[in-house]
Design a protein that fits this description.
An 8-stranded antiparallel β-sheet has the order 11-12-13-14-20-19-18-17, with helices on one face. The longest helix has 23 residues. It is about 30% helix and about 30% strand. The chain contains 10 helices and 20 strands. Helix 4 runs antiparallel to helix 5. The chain folds into 3 domains: about 100 residues, no CATH class; about 200 residues, no CATH class; about 130 residues, no CATH class. The chain is globular and about 85 Å long. The chain has about 450 residues and is α+β, with helices and mostly antiparallel strands. It comes from Pseudomonas serboccidentalis. Pfam families: LprI. Keywords: Signal. This is Lysozyme inhibitor LprI family protein.
């Protein structure tokens, strides 16, 4: 992924890049054309060093996997040597092997949910179900809020750059209010340039592991098309704060605990304490579902506890609609109002029906020359979520309708805010947009252990 011209590498890759040079082959003993080519090319030598260290770490970590690792490594070396002096070929072979080894390392290095995590998951599920009896709309939000960390911690910001047009910031030169002398000394010996160089940065001191020493949360806003914010954590260890995953080459956000996207997603994080254990409860919303991932704040997370909350909606098209200026209003004609509300009944049907056979939404007349526009509304837009396409019958004419929303975004005042766009089957028709309102109620809660997905797909 690219953010503001920077490549974001994986967290697992970052674990081994530091000190990798020490693990490279001994070029004084290079005896083949392949080895000489690698030693003559810094990029290839660095890849060889990274792979060598990663391989040795895997061999040390898992005795059970050693035989298979040895066999696959020997097989890979034969494939690599076929490249001889072809630098591009060698580069590709190394990157393929590194990716595979990094995937294997994730399985060993990542925190594995234990009995405590599973009990926490069950407790959270029971709490949400209990809250839904009195508040079926906001049972999840109310439950997470009740579990929020009691101490707000100490938060301070990085200093802006002298150039008012620069996004770069700098770690403060003087001790912020609320930071002890001991903490300031440890902060001053920790390197934060990689974080602050990427955009506006906030620092929060709070105990994340219960050792009575405050750890550090670093939140960096990088912007971009998705208005991204990256969050990483540092554990207080003696006279220094150590990053959860090592950074390298001035790049830090590749090893972030999580990121949030403020355009094209509906995401939020609650720092909670459940049963004496702190988690970053990462919520990814969509129409009809919220998925919450319980992230261990100071570990690598791969398989994590997940709780899924599902909702049913009561949808309606308000008779009073807003004009494009957002201030003035108009009223729908009764017949049109009835037709639009009738069309909304198809939304639930469209979500539950299997899409094994592609059928037109509106009947295709024999005179139609372009039939594609009869099967769907068309391409969507990344910043909004397309829920369903369905027929809208106005009078005796069939129109193509689509309901969009903002990834399940929901408020106490307005409920679900969505839109229905309606057009003629002719794709050239610009169509018309109508407001849709919805009230939800919790319909189910389930738990699982699975991979952490920041977009909420599981």
């Amino acid at each position: 992924m690219y953010i503001k011209g920077r490549y974001i590498v994986s967290a697992c890759a970052l674990l081994f890049i530091q000190q990798a040079m020490a693990a490279g082959m001994d070029c004084a003993k290079a005896s083949s054309a392949v080895e000489n080519t690698i030693c003559a090319n810094k990029g290839l030598y660095d890849l060889d060093a990274q792979m060598g260290m990663l391989y040795r770490q895997l061999m040390t970590t898992s005795a059970q996997a050693q035989p298979d690792l040895k066999q696959t490594q020997r097989s890979w070396l034969k494939t690599r040597n076929e490249c001889v002096e072809d630098v591009a070929c060698l580069d590709l072979r190394y990157r393929e092997r590194l990716q595979l080894l990094q995937t294997q390392w994730t399985q060993f290095a990542a925190h594995q949910p234990d009995g405590v995590d599973k009990q926490v998951l069950d407790d959270l599920q029971n709490s949400i179900r209990a809250a839904s009896k009195t508040d079926p709309q906001f049972a999840l939000e109310r439950t997470l809020a009740s579990l929020s960390l009691k101490s707000p911690g100490t938060t301070f910001s990085a200093d802006p750059d002298a150039d008012q047009f620069s996004d770069k910031t700098h770690f403060p030169k003087t001790r912020p209010k609320g930071v002890s002398q001991d903490e300031w000394k440890a902060l001053s010996t920790t390197e934060f340039d990689a974080d602050t160089a990427l955009g506006r940065t906030m620092f929060t001191l709070i105990d994340l592991d219960g050792d009575r020493q405050r750890d550090l949360i670093v939140e960096t806003y990088t912007g971009g098309t998705g208005l991204y914010t990256f969050v990483e954590t540092f554990r207080r260890e003696g006279d220094k704060f150590n990053r959860r995953t090592p950074a390298s080459d001035g790049e830090s956000i590749g090893g972030s605990l999580y990121s949030t996207n403020d355009r094209g997603a509906n995401q939020s994080v609650n720092w909670v304490n459940i049963g004496g254990k702190v988690y970053a409860a990462y919520r990814a919303g969509a129409y009809g579902v919220d998925r919450v991932y319980l992230l261990n704040p100071l570990q690598i997370n791969h398989e994590v506890p997940i709780i899924e909350v599902r909702y049913d909606y009561r949808l309606s098209v308000p008779r009073t609609q807003h004009n494009e200026d957002g201030k003035t209003t108009f009223k729908l004609e009764p017949a049109l109002h009835q037709s639009l509300n009738q069309a909304l009944t198809h939304v639930t049907e469209s979500q539950t029906q299997a899409s094994e056979q592609r059928t037109p939404i509106c009947p295709i007349p024999p005179t139609a020359t372009d039939t594609e526009g009869y099967y769907s509304y068309g391409a969507g837009y990344y910043a909004i979520e397309s829920v369903a396409d369905f027929p809208v019958i106005i009078g005796k004419e069939c129109f193509i309708g689509r309901m969009n929303n903002w990834f399940g975004a929901y408020s106490e005042k307005d409920g679900l805010f969505a839109q229905m766009t309606v057009r003629k089957p002719d794709p050239e028709d610009g169509g018309r947009t109508y407001e849709v309102k919805g009230r939800r109620q919790l319909s189910g809660v389930s738990t699982s252990i699975g991979k952490f997905e920041e977009n909420g797909d599981n």
